[in-house]
Design brief:
This protein is α+β, with helices and mostly antiparallel strands. The chain is built from 17 helices and 27 strands. The strands form six sheets. Strands 10-11-12-15-16-17-13-14 form an eight-stranded mixed sheet, covered by helices on one side. A five-stranded antiparallel sheet has the order 5-6-9-8-20. Strands 7-21-22-19-18 form a five-stranded antiparallel sheet. The N terminus is likely disordered. Bound molecules: siroheme and iron/sulfur cluster (SF4).
Amino acid sequence: MTSSNDTLNRLESTSFNPEQKEYLSGLFAGIAQRQLYPYVGLIPGGVRFTAYPDQGERNLAAPASAEPVIHGTPASDCTKQELWKHEEHGLDSWERLLAHAEQNKLPDEENTFRFRFHGLFNVSPAQNSLMLRCRIPAGELSCSQMRGLADISEAWGDGRAAITTRSNLQIREIQPKNAVHVLTHLASVGLTSRGSGVDNVRNITASPTAGLDPQELLDVRPFAHALHHYILNHRDLYDLPRKFNIAFEGGGTVDTVADTNDIGFMAALVKEEPRGVIGKSLKDGASVTLSAGVYFRVEVCGITGHRQFAMDSGIIVKPSEACAVSAAVLRVFSEHGDRTDRKKARLKYLVDKWGVPRFLEAVQSRLAFPLVQLDASLCERRPPSVRHGHIGVFRQRQKGRNWIGVVVPVGILTTRQMRRLADLAEHYGSGALRLTPWQNLLIPDVPDAYVDTVKRQLVRAGLHHDATQILGGLVACTGNNGCKWSNSDTKGHALKLGEHLSQRLTLDQPLNMHFTGCPNSCAQHYMGDIGFQGVRVNVKSENVEGYNIVFGGGFGASQAVAKQVFTGIPFSDVPVLMEKVFTAYLARRNAGESFSSFTRRHDVRQLQEMFSE
Ligand code: SRM
Ligand code: SF4
């Protein structure tokens, strides 16, 4: 086995500058240290045990004279995060977790990075504690899992949970001493948080009404679950250059915003044709006759914070091939993605550099079956989703059954509400719950006879099944109560603005307003009818919370990147400004015109003038 000391000696003979040598010496000395002093853990009941991690053979050493290389990139060019991963695989930090738990210590920058591989985020200084981000594939939760999450939040968190924009759940205010209890309890309810942060594939999303929806083309849940398990069982997929998002869109009532993901699998129908539908094999250019049925069109490189939706790659795959195609794309990304600059380490930048044909060729080279190119016009795309289809009562394709979309204001649930929802799902539905990327949830399988009872019970629990066109479309990222990057209290402001407007205005069409605290755009403000991006604003001698405001975004069939109309508006001015915006829109729109169509047909200056009157 090659020791870290050998590596240290070799560093002497390579061509690093003194600064690089010092850093790398420190790094490898750190490894040697850890091998000598194993971590100690504390198990419930106060029993101590010592664990000697088997460090195994590390791939630190390149040939004696060469510089260490990480995924083809010389170590001295790599980001510090790459060096940390190279030093220790992201999933191998359990000993460190135990040590931190034992000392009730928050991790430093390096260990903060490592613990995110286990779904634990040190969110100081916003809160001096850890946050747990789960993985909930396809947003599907059983009532017992929901109760288990409520137990975790009650015992070790702040007694609440937040539904995220990836149909997922986060629990906050976890003390380091409780981190291990949280993870083991999560496992005991059949959930995991592995890979929900940093350089991993994030929670796999799928149409929230999959399997229930009369209008869907395909129940996409099996594919989302298959991929979830594939990822969990392949360590190399936890060492990507950066985060990676994958979504499955089955064409149902509620949009899953798959077009904002690195890969969006979009269900599409190939219709019966007398001579068959002919595609082209990417492998050898041969014609491929496609039988009629539902396939996925593969869209790639969505990343709305960088103002880009996923683009159609020209490829169509059988649903059963989606997992293999994902794995191939992930490995191409892993091998060739940028390891030197985290801002450019997303799939988009690799494909920008290579172009789509070279990228697809690389993907094809990792697959045993041919990728098939088919012009998008030869497929029938999904039916349009229903705006705010995530709220209210909708009939399922199963006769006499309904899903009830529950309003969860900006995604926050108390543990009491979580348990109540679990009870309702168990007593009146099939025991299942579905989280949505709209930061709310659905109770499926409610028989007609129980719909009114469930509605009443929801209201009793302080939740709802109905909302104004304004309140039904509020989405807000964590904001400055939990995230250090946030310039403003996104969740609080979204609620205040929603209430202010709902008391003064009635809209006859659903509308989405997305609040995001910084340019990272976790709440995808560029795809909102209206998007708010938090900024600090100087007002007289005071620095206050405010927003840049964008208009005219959309997703799916009405996809568009919103344009910035107002810059640096203090939040105190936002409610009155937005009242003016809606008053002008209602007075000047064409009959039945939606807010996004209205804002799209005017340029920025026209909108500024109209909305400032
Ligand atoms: Fe996000 C980082 C919260 C969805 C783009 N995101 C963060 C961090 C971890 C801040 C940090 O690095 O310290 C935030 C943790 C706050 C906290 O304590 O709660 C954070 N992101 C969230 C969540 C919780 C927002 C929400 O309230 O729903 C969402 C969790 C989803 C999940 O369950 O996995 C969340 N973030 C997104 C999305 C939407 C999506 O994934 O579908 C995006 C835009 C799409 C994309 O892929 O970029 C998003 N988050 C970012 C970025 C910018 C990445 C980039 O390459 O531009 C960062 C910064 C980073 O990764 O370094 C970030
Ligand atoms: Fe934090 Fe910015 Fe994401 Fe909001 S958008 S959660 S402020 S990183």
